[in-house]
Here is the input.
Amino acid sequence: GDPTWSRCYTLTAVWVVVLCVIQLTAITVLWNKFNNLKSQNNQLQSRYSNLTKESEQLHASYNNLSIERDQLQTSYYSLSIEKDQLQTSYNSLTMEKDQLQTSYNSLTMEKDQLQTSYNSLIMETVFLSNYNNLSIEKDQIHTSCNNLTIERDQLQRDIEEIQRFFKLGWVYFNTSVYNISTEKKNWTESKQACRERGADLVIINSREEQEFINKLLGRRVAWIGLSDREREGEWKWVDDTPLMTG
Here is the structure.
């Protein structure tokens, strides 16, 4: 063959090979860049997804915070209203407390005045009580004096009466005087005669009195104040007390 064409063909083949190598290198470089870009794209896609999730989470957090803020704002307004109401109530209570303190002070003064008046009344009452007691004691002493005067006068009359009885022959024994009448009467007439003289048939109250009467009578016979005239066999004294035996 033609040597020139052979060289051209060889050169052409060499250039083709070089171009293929260059193209292969370019393709390799481009493929590497593609892979790098794809990897970067995947990373960016992943970051975008993460950022989207974070954005959604932030948006949800923002909404929650907005709701909480609104709730807090509402609570703040409510607390402000309650605080104003409490302040008003506190002011009212303070006024009431001051009024009560004033009333308490007034009542304390009135109580002290009443205590003073009470103490004065107690002293007056004690004085009046002592005065009344003295008046009662005076009246009692006066009554006792009158009673003693009456008793004295009665004793004087009794003494005079006893002295009169003595002159008439009466005998004294143990606070009583005894007389044996010489007149002969039945029991009823004898009782009546004794009572007309302010006396009565004798009632024997003790063994000593019985012995005195027996000694006074001696052998004489006289009526005593004992009978069964109301019911036979039921003996009674003239003062209507039953006869005690034994």
Q: What stands out?
A: The radius of gyration is 74 Å. The beta strands are 171-173, 176-178, 226-227, 236-237. The longest helix spans residues 3-167.
